[in-house]
Amino acid sequence: MKKRLINNSLNNKLKKIKFILLDIDGVVVPRGTKIEQKGENLKINIKKIPESQIEKIKTLSKKGYVFGINSGRGLYMLQNMFSKILPYLIITYENGSATWYKGKIYQHSNSFDKLYKVRQELEKVKHPNIKGFEPKEFIITVHCKKRVKEIEKIVSKYKELYSIWNDEAYDIGVKGLQTKARGLKEVMKTFKIKKQQILFVGDNYNDRGLGGMAGVIVSADKTRLKGDIYVSMHEKKLPAEQVMDIFLNKLK
Ligand SMILES: [Mg+2]
Predict the structure, then answer these.
(1) Which one of 1.10.3210, 3.90.1070, 3.30.479, 2.60.40 gives the CATH number of domain 112-174?
(2) Which of 3, 12, 150, 199 has the most beta carbons within 10 angstroms of its beta carbon?
(3) Residues 34, 44: contact at Cβ < 8 Å?
(4) Cα-to-centroid distance, 3 and ligand 1 (Å)
(5) Residues of 76-91 as b/e, b for ≥16 C-beta within 10 angstroms?
(6) How far is the CA of 28 from the centre of ligand 1 (A)?
(7) What is the 61 CA–ligand 1 centroid distance (Å)?
(8) Which positions of the chain have pLDDT values less than 50?
């Protein structure tokens, strides 16, 4: 017997969804950010959202769905990645530090005093595994080939800071203040969105906080994130698009 992807109780939950919140890496685009710093030159590879997803986001937006992005990346990069669909997106960036919507910026925290000193210390570290600092406004992101003990040691001296290693970089920010979950909380407040109206698509351990705030979780990696729906990241269509298809087919 063929197992149904969407059963009735799930279908009822999907009917309440208004806000589709997407993680980026592994969901909208394949995993991984490429960055390379040589002296004063910084080279960043920016991935664009696939054309097939652009059309589907436009169609669903016209039907009343709102799309959200919640990422550790900087706004400039997200605006570039999503340049063709900016009118349809609520962008929360730098791990919940701020949100952009139609040209207006909502700053959720001020980390300047807490990160200024540690940044000076980190810039002095010389290590062959360090690839470079990704330009960010509110958090610190250091790309490395592998973990660098010296970075971890420096950050651990600052009790109010976190340092998250994600296999390609360290994100350093203020605990409880600069988190994706906090960013989503602010978005829910600002745009009056309820939990049952949120569908979240993620693929990683660090997506659990966001998942817990959504009515429906779609996981693209069941070994790392528990979901109500599972999609595969190894198919031709990336997970975000598979989710868009669910909503497009449901509406037919
Ligand atoms: Mg991801």
Answers:
(1) 3.90.1070
(2) 199
(3) yes
(4) 27
(5) ebbeebbeebeebbbb
(6) 9
(7) 23
(8) 1-2
